[in-house]
Amino acid sequence: MLAKLKDLLALSAPGSAPGSATGGEASGTLDPLMLAAAVLMLEAASMDGHIDEDERAKIAELLTRRFQLSPHAVGALMREAEDRVLHSVDIYGFTRDLKDSFSAEERIELMEMLWEIAYVDGELHDLEATLMRRLAGLLYVSDRASGEARKRAIGRLGQEGLD
């Protein structure tokens, strides 16, 4: 309960605008939105039973690009996100924070990043597909927008033959 209150206060603090890259890195604390995005990425990567090095590298690359983070900040973010994945029972709180704070375009961009993670190993597992449908709904991303994001992710990965 106290942690949720801290997260809410951090979201409303000056200089911690939703999605800003400086919201957590400069102060030494993690931005709740960056953490939520990282948790969802790790959740997507772990749906097939394990997270391999290609998936970890892709997550680090996407977090670095999206939030303009240093390698040190990405490492800290991923460590905290891994801890949250291990100790959380659901993803609703993370998706709610992102849905409420990200614009429609940012939510679609997040779906595209999640699709990249799901496909980085060259295949989409049934549990990954189920999670992606669930995340699209929780993030209020239409099936059509999620499908277009999926196609862009596949194209970016150079895996045009995937379905």
Please, could you describe this protein's structure?
The chain is mainly alpha-helical and 163 residues long. It has one domain (30-157): TerB-like. The chain has helices spanning 2-12, 22-25, 32-46, 53-67, 71-87, 92-101, 104-119, 126-138, 143-157. The longest helix has 17 residues, at 71-87. The protein is globular and about 35 Å long. It starts with a helix and ends in a 6-residue tail after the last helix. The model is unreliable at 1-27 (pLDDT under 50).
Order of helices and strands: HHHHHHHHH
Summing up helix and strand content along with how strands pair, one would put the structural category as mainly alpha
Q: Which residues form runs of ≥5 with pLDDT under 50?
A: 1-27
Strand content: under 5%
Number of helical segments with 4 or more residues: 9
Instruction: Give the tally of β-strands.
Output: 0
Mean pLDDT across the residues is 83
**Biggest sheet layout:** none
Rg, alpha carbons: 15 Å
Total of domains: 1
- The third-level CATH topology is TerB-like
CATH level-four homologous superfamily name: TerB-like
Shape: globular
| CATH class descriptor name | Mainly Alpha
So, CATH architecture?
Answer: Orthogonal Bundle
Fraction of helical residues: over 70%
Distance between the termini: 42 Å
